Amino acid sequence: MLLRKYMSLLGVGSAIIDLILPKETYRRGELINGHFYIKGGTIEQQLKRIDCDLVMHDQTTGQEKVIDTATILSSKNIHSDESNTVSFTFKLPESIPISSEKISYRFKTRLTFNEGVESKDQDIIQVI
User: Is the separation of the CB atoms in 78 and 40 below 8 Å?
Assistant: First the structure.
């Protein structure tokens, strides 16, 4: 059991997170409703928070810019092999550029624990 704890502190066997969205294409100003799927790892872990950044990537400059962030604070324990869902709602800004060959968007999600490394997920969306 002690080995499992130390392995999860290094990220091996930690809980994982996945942002589930109903579609990949959205209009500027649209309200996105989805959920985070959280799957427990090999040991019980205490969740601290979920951060989800909308990131714009500009191919011409190679730069990424965080447009907005949604944060959910939690002190919930996730048990070994337990599955949970947490609702996700995000309103796309009206003023962002539409997706193109040079501009792309993604949600970068981080699940933070009281102990151990973060679990991460990325989901590409298209803005029209």
Answer: yes
